[in-house]
Design brief:
The protein is of the alpha/beta class and about 375 residues long. It has helices at about 1-20, 25-30, 45-55, 80-85, 115-120, 150-165, 190-200, 210, 220, 260, 340-370; strands spanning about 35-40, 65-70, 95-100, 125-130, 185-190, 205, 245-255, 270-275, 280, 290-295, 300-305, 310-315. The longest helix is centred in the last third of the chain and has 31 residues, at about 340-370.
């Protein structure tokens, strides 16, 4: 019996030690000469997405490794991510938990996370910020009108890191990390773009239908042009398992040269993009420039930093694997013929998305070269 108890104790202890090690890559895993890219909010879905993009040569970084970073106060259960990165095919992925929590008063200044943020910045060439739920409006000095906040600690952590990287209107005396490495890569998708804007002192429209178009119900929303819908409202009216929760709509490039020069996009092309949000940028953050909008120019779809060339983001979702492989067939409206996302965006749309990922790959390569 004593031997059995000792064996059980050893197994349990090994589990907790391994779990702790898996979440503390900075302490024991960093290797000199290696290139590391950070992934904020490294859920299973986000890790698998980057893995898919790498395996299919969409994200072209053959030698880079990835460190998923997250706050210990987030609501997501990272045990699932620990299990995933333990698989042999995920050997390029690691995790770093950052302990502690900060009040809203301390996010946009030096705080208990600053030292860790700086260490992560020094050890990496860039960072991705992914989609997710609504940011608490008090972090951009608004009362909550239409926001559904489900993970406030995630937002506090990511906004503070972005502020440390880029600086913002909230604290003009703070010297952002990118002053030291102006070519460092930062990008975001959907919430990631909104977070970049809020962190630099911008604000958000909390609900596009209600505040931009003055539509308060699903039925009213569906009377808008399809190009004005940024997610699907049919699922709130009819019960059909084939409804997609998203919408595809075209975007319009501004006069800013980002999409023409960096992405090499055809100016005449108005590519369909995968849209799944109800919030958008209202007032721009410090040094951010608009690169694309919705067709009616009411919703900002892309931004780039005025000072740091490898800092840019989009409101849509170019990272979704279903854009690059044929899959389940879904429909937007009751009368539609079900199609896969791959079919919907067509060859023309896929070319645009692949060019966007080439631009991301080149921006990261540029950041890596500038570090050496």
């Amino acid at each position: 019996m004593k031997i059995l108890k000792k064996l059980i104790y050893t197994v349990v202890l090994a589990f907790f030690l391994n779990a702790g090690f898996a979440q503390n890559f900075l302490e024991s895993g960093i290797k000199p000469g290696k290139t590391y890219i950070l992934l904020a909010h490294p859920t299973v879905q986000n890790l698998e997405t980057i893995h898919f993009l790498l395996n299919n040569n969409i994200l072209q970084l053959p030698d880079a490794e990835f460190i998923g970073i997250f706050s210990s106060a987030e609501s997501y259960n990272y045990k699932h991510s620990i299990d995933l990165i333990g698989k042999p095919e995920m050997s390029r992925f690691h995790l770093q938990k950052v302990d502690g929590a900060e009040s809203s008063a301390n996010i946009y200044t030096v705080n208990s996370w600053t030292k860790t943020f700086k260490n992560l910045f020094d050890q990496s060439a860039g960072i991705f910020f992914f989609g997710g739920p609504d940011i608490q409006p008090e972090l951009y000095e608004q009362e909550n009108l239409y926001s559904e906040v489900t993970d406030p600690n995630r937002h506090s952590f990511e906004l503070s890191f972005l502020f440390h990287l880029l600086g913002g209107k909230q604290n003009s005396g703070f010297s952002p990390f990118l002053k030291e490495k102006p070519g460092y890569f930062v990008t975001g998708f959907c919430l990631g773009m909104q977070s970049m804007n809020v962190a630099t002192g911008g604000t958000l429209t909390q609900d596009i239908p209600a505040q931009t178009y003055k539509k308060m119900t699903a039925e009213e929303n569906l009377k808008l042009k399809k190009d004005q819908l940024h997610r699907n409202y049919w699922q709130e009216i009819k019960n059909d398992t084939l409804f997609m929760g998203i919408n595809f709509h075209p975007i319009l490039y501004t006069a800013h040269p980002f999409f023409m020069k960096k992405v090499k996009a055809d100016r005449e092309l108005k590519p369909l993009v995968l849209s799944s949000h109800h919030q958008s940028i209202e007032k721009l953050g410090k040094d951010l420039i608009v690169t694309a909008t919705s067709m009616d120019e009411m919703v900002i779809e892309g931004i780039q930093h005025r000072v740091y060339p490898n800092v840019f983001a989009v409101q849509f979702h170019p990272e979704v694997p279903s854009l690059y492989k044929d899959g389940k067939k879904l429909k937007f409206a009751p009368e539609d013929t079900p199609k896969s996302y791959y079919e919907i965006i067509s060859e023309e749309g896929r070319e645009f998305h692949l060019k966007y990922w080439q631009a991301i790959s080149k921006a990261i390569e540029s950041s890596i070269r500038l570090q050496k």
